What we know:
About 40% of the residues lie in helices and about 45% in strands. By secondary structure, the protein is an alpha+beta fold. The longest helix has about 40 residues, at about 1-40.
Amino acid sequence: MKKLIVLGLFLLVSQFSFGQDIKATIEDLEKKRFAAQVAKDADYMNKIFADDLVYVHSSGKTDNKDAYIASVLNGSSVYSKVDIEELIVRAYNKGQTAVVNGTVMITQPPVDGKPTLLHLRYLVVYVKDSKKGWQLNSWQSSKLAK
């Protein structure tokens, strides 16, 4: 009986730490991704975004991977700064899928001398590819009320 209790506790603790590892990994990927979007780092965006990316802007406009990266590089989607306010990561599918719910404040270039701020709540889905590692498959955001 004691062996079963010890085994149960071990499995519970290992499952918790497994989830914590995924959480830390995804949080790090989110920070790097936002930094890449600000820096217009095409190499990193090509690496982190899945080939079947569906990127739904807060305006409702939808892009695929190539269109979204092009919009960042050509200035259609502009990010001067991204501040992460909230980041909740949940792991699914035996640690092969992660869903992120977050809140960010995006600073865009000034208009008429005033910075443009986008306060967004967003949902992201990552899937772990056996060859490419974690891939961002879906982004969808909505503007928060002022």
